[in-house]
Request: fold
Amino acid sequence: MENEEKFRLDNQLCFAFYACSREIIKLYRPILAELDLTYTQYITMLALWEKDGVPVKELGARLYLDSGTLTPLLKKLESSGYITRTRNKSDERNLVIQLTEEGRRLKEKAETIPERLVECTNAAPEEVISLRDQIQSLLRKMDSPT
Reply:
């Protein structure tokens, strides 16, 4: 690639991911508004529906979120009645996040979100799945020690 070309914005991997991420989150907004959730609250609930009763540190690592972002988000989900935050009995320094019954019921209301989002992309479901798998593969490579 020529020197001029490698510095073009459209040739940057980071910009392609950044722009696509912003557009995908924008597509989620009206769908999630029906449940009164933000995108970050939604992915937090997805992680908890997958594995309930997790320490805050583990949840933050799973979501790639730092405690400064996660703490206010968890407080909001708690005030909405979807989760509880309790001290770990064996280590008081650690908070454990658990779904409430209302938080578990929210999963039923969210059941159609993945399909609705794929429809909004105007791409075939197979394309979306293939792209997701490629991105996850790249992420695993970046997460693994060199």
About this structure: The mean pLDDT is 94. Helices lie at 3-6, 13-33, 39-50, 56-63, 67-79, 101-109, 113-120, 125-143. The first helix runs from residue 3 to 6. The first strand starts at residue 54 and ends at 55.
